[in-house]
Input
Amino acid sequence: MYYVIKILVSSILILIISELSKKSSFVGSLFASLPLVSILAFIWLYYDTGDKSKISSLSYGVFWLVIPSLSLFISLPLLLKRFGFYTSLVFSISIMLICYYLMVYLLGKFGIHL
Output
């Protein structure tokens, strides 16, 4: 039952954001930019484990991995000017994955292991 509640809460948030985006791209963007997934992950992880060190580690990892995820939001609008939606999305995700790899690689060079 607990997993069903987790799925329902997470799904409802995504539904609300997508519906808000239909009415106002600004309001949709505002809610989508909130770290709701991270906050839910912190809550679920704490509820499941009660381990503050796991929350801290997750938060630290999210911080470093948000940076390469921004490449999706930069590349997608640029690619949409030249290609269709799905092509642009696939290319943007590919760019983002490359940026993730580069970030993890560079962090490793500086002794930061996620």
User: Anything to note?
Assistant: Helices lie at 2-23, 25-33, 36-49, 52-80, 85-109.
